[in-house]
Amino acid sequence: MTQTAEKTDLAQIGVVGLAVMGSNLARNFARNGNTVAVYNRSPEKTRALISEHGDEGAFIPSETVEDFVASLERPRKAIIMVQAGAATDAVINQLTEAMDEGDIIIDGGNALFTDTIRREKEVAAKGRHFVGAGISGGEEGALNGPSIMPGGPAESWETLGPILESIAAEVDGTPCVTHIGPDGAGHFVKMVHNGIEYADMQVIGEAYQLLRYGAGMEPAEIAEVFREWNAGDLDSYLIEITAEVLAQTDPDTGAPLVDVIVDAAGQKGTGRWTAINGLDLGVPITGIAESVFARALSSATAQRAAAQEGQLPSGTITELNVDKAEFVEDVRRALYAAKLIAYSQGFDEIKAGSDEFGWNVDPRDLATIWRGGCIIRAKFLDRIREAYDNDADLPALILDPYFKGELENLIDPWRRVVVAATQLGLPVPVFASSLSYYDSLRAERLPAALIQGQRDFFGAHTFKRVDREGTFHIEWSGDRSLTEM
């Protein structure tokens, strides 16, 4: 029986936008004892939610923004789950006009953090609070417990905290939600979370490609390998679902499902934003960036077809000449190493963004709330939290003693896998770029010295010396004397 709350009751939280994510989030709030106001621009979706799921808790449906706002207890709290961009701005403007001073508007979509900074200023100028909240976990997480990354004013968190904790995933009794920092901090962190997710998914794909076309294994056999891996250091949500996808057969043909899916990966922008902001901040998030480029290349289907028709030369391709079991183990260790690099680079970008915008984001909080609900949840997040507990100013995650010890056992298999992939002619952009990043960090000298010499030659950009302080220039077009600038 549908249990719609009486209009004389007031809702603790409201949800605007009742597509799958918004509907599931509203149901999650209701299931956990909250009275939930619901509104959608198309009233049919509101009615469908009440008709199909109204017995899951107390809902107050409305067909106008004004009725929706009137059904919320003060300070009013409304979470927006509509398409990012102009649609979000339109709803924010409607709610700002209908609400009163001190009320809270929450954007739960994947907004660009700079938009969130702008919106927070605009809404604050009118006496309302604005919170950009990253929500991870997909449709299932929204319904059963996501990881939530709210930014915005600390005062808003005091009000929102308990209600968000009531619906978040829990690990070891700790809700996977915390206040990230001011204005755009929550959406920035969610953006980087998604960037790590891109790299993680791509390097898992590269591992599959190596096992399939290097070791000659079939999808069902590889699925069992991933299930075994998920019982160890690689224990994570993405490894778990990879095994499920590889084990699945196509209901129509009986062929492995992975073989009937077009190999062109989609993207909605958060990975690209992560790469762009990494460039803006000067942070080398090479594995994340390569994963974005890999999706773009996979979708360049006309170009790929032309390259195949034109039979681009491959050079000498060799067959795998090592024991299959040993190769599988090498791929496992290389996958673990590349995943560690993706997380390390993501935390580097978050630190740089926090420093740039004055957010004071605590990496220990992220390692805690990413352990459950979110797409990149993984066993080694506990180790990441311990790393930052031991040294809050850790220069890079992989410099933590535990992870350095892990990498000592991973580096040789990682190198062997990248070499094998090259010999096999199989693309491994994240495996390879992550290894180059690792070697760049540990190199005593980089070719940047030559680059600085080139820059000084053609543009008089100057250079610094290793043997004394100062900035210098060579008179390249003259007598090539040294000038201190």
Q: Which regions have little confidence, pLDDT < 50, spanning 5+ residues?
A: none
Task: Note the beta-strand portion.
Answer: 5-15%
The total count of helices amounts to 20
How many strand segments?
11
Q: CATH architecture of the largest domain, please?
A: Orthogonal Bundle
The level of helicity is 40-55%
Q: End-to-end distance, in Å?
A: 81 Å
Q: Roughly how many Å is the radius of gyration?
A: 26 Å
In total, the number of domains comes to: 3
Strand order of the largest sheet: 3-2-1-4-5-6-7
Blueprint (SSEs and pairs):
Layout: E1 13-16, H1 20-31, E2 36-39, H2 43-53, E3 59-62, H3 65-70, E4 77-80, H4 86-98, E5 104-107, H5 113-124, E6 129-136, H6 138-144, E7 147-150, H7 154-165, E8 170-171, E9 174-175, H8 185-213, H9 219-229, H10 237-247, H11 257-260, H12 270-281, H13 286-298, H14 301-309, H15 324-357, H16 363-369, H17 381-390, H18 401-424, H19 429-442, H20 448-459, E10 472-474, E11 482-484
Parallel strand pairs: 1-2, 1-4, 2-3, 4-5, 5-6
Antiparallel strand pairs: 6-7, 8-9, 10-11
Helix pairs in contact: 1-6, 8-12, 8-13, 8-15, 9-10, 12-13, 13-19, 15-18, 15-19, 16-17
Protein described:
With 485 residues, the chain is of the alpha/beta class. It folds into three domains: 167 residues, NAD(P)-binding Rossmann-like Domain (Rossmann fold, 3-Layer(aba) Sandwich), CATH 3.40.50.720; 253 residues, N-(1-d-carboxylethyl)-l-norvaline Dehydrogenase, domain 2, CATH 1.10.1040; 38 residues, 6-Phosphogluconate Dehydrogenase, domain 3 (Single alpha-helices involved in coiled-coils or other helix-helix interfaces, Up-down Bundle), CATH 1.20.5.320. Helices cover 54% and strands 9% of the residues. The chain has 20 helices and eleven strands. Strands 3-2-1-4-5-6-7 form a seven-stranded mixed β-sheet, sandwiched between helices. A two-stranded antiparallel sheet has the order 8-9. A two-stranded antiparallel ribbon has the order 10-11. Helix 2 links the parallel strand 2 and strand 3. The chain is globular. This is 6-phosphogluconate dehydrogenase, decarboxylating. Pathway: Carbohydrate degradation; pentose phosphate pathway; D-ribulose 5-phosphate from D-glucose 6-phosphate (oxidative stage): step 3/3.
